[in-house]
Amino acid sequence: MQSFEFHCPTEVVFGKSTEQKTAQEIKKFGGSRVFLIYGGGSAVHSGLIGRMKDNLREADLPYEMMGGVQPNPRLSFAREAVKRAQTFGADFILAVGGGSVIDTAKAVAIGLADDSRDIWDYWCKKAPVTGAAPVGVVLTIPASGSETSDSAVLTDEESKRKRGLSTDFNRPRFAVLNPELTYTLPPFQLSCGITDMLMHTLDRYFTVDCNNQLTDEIAEAVMRIIIRNGQIAHCHPHDYDAMSELMWCGSISHNGLTGLGNEKDFSVHQLGHELSAKFDIAHGASLSAVWDSWANYASPSAPQRFARYAENVWGVHNGSDEEKSRSGIALTIRFFRFLGMPTCFSELQGVGIQPDAVLHQMADSCMYSGKRTVGTFCKLDIPAAHEIYQNANY
């Protein structure tokens, strides 16, 4: 196990009707003027936004709201939200929604703390983050784990670049997790969320450090529970127990716990970011579309790691390491297909099979035109990324 530092200060408030505790949580963490960010109409139509307004009013907390966050959260929206939060004099940001809403809230919080820079500078690593306004979350989608993570992504829709930023300033002060708030999710959105939380664990599990017993077994348990309850929730989306397990797995999968003592890899996420930035597809779909190709590219160099995954997550015990490795990959793909998720480019709505020039462009962009490589488990450069995209392009 390698050296590590673990800091996850987010207070989790879990259970039925816990959204009614939001105002008291905001006050606990010093909030007095609240800027509430949410996504599309579902939060309004379900009555959740109305309940949040009532909750804030009853606590005498002035608030301003801004809705309209889209998947693959837009830089332009975040910039406008920073201006509106500044004008309002906000000292607390409340995100009501899923990962895109939470990531936007994190961007606004960083922008509020320092108005001397454009927020994109931080995502492009032109300056270190030195502060952020406090953020609270009312989670509606079990998926990204952004409610407990140190990371946030933004997409610059003009340049079609999608970038992530990790800093402890991104950690929300609290996260309200009521599994009942997930009941109105469309099936595809739920499937994308299940895929995303599984991939957050997979991208930490496939690592160069294979002598990390506790972290490995925590990760394997999280993946088994995601798979088991993902199957139940896919068929019975109002199953409270299944949604409870998924909601908690989503938070655990991205708070750092499942990768402690390992080098973070996240190759599949980096490959997927190029797809979602270029074609504006759902994040979870971009991950499932390239995972098979990445796994088949990476597994020959470390079949024993994939064999362990097959054994401890999928219960595959027969055959050589290479055979178990192939079985584990195949079972993962079968799970994605059960969820209705794409596993190659032709299954991505609005994408389809792409000309080779596009694959080259995505590979080049993923590696910042050769200025970086991606991953530690199986280090990827431009030719490797291009090959993985080619093998997914059918």
Structural description of this entry:
With 394 residues, the chain is of the alpha/beta class. It has 2 domains: 11-181, Rossmann fold; 187-392, Up-down Bundle (Dehydroquinate synthase-like, alpha domain). 49% of the residues lie in helices and 10% in strands. The strands form 2 sheets. It has a 6-stranded parallel sheet, sandwiched between helices. Strands 6-7 form a two-stranded antiparallel ribbon. A hairpin with a 4-residue loop joins β6 (151-156) and β7 (161-166). α4 (75-88) packs across α5. The model has no long low-confidence stretch (mean pLDDT 95).
In short:
With 394 residues, this protein is an alpha/beta fold.
- CATH fourth-tier homologous superfamily of the largest domain: Dehydroquinate synthase-like - alpha domain
Tertiary shape: globular
What does the oligomeric state look like here?
Answer: single chain
Residues in helix, %: 40-55%
Q: Which CATH first-tier class of the largest domain would you pick?
A: Mainly Alpha
Domain Fe-containing alcohol dehydrogenase-like C-terminal: 195-374
Pfam families: ADH_Fe_C, Fe-ADH
GO cellular component, one term: cytosol
Protein name: Iron-containing alcohol dehydrogenase
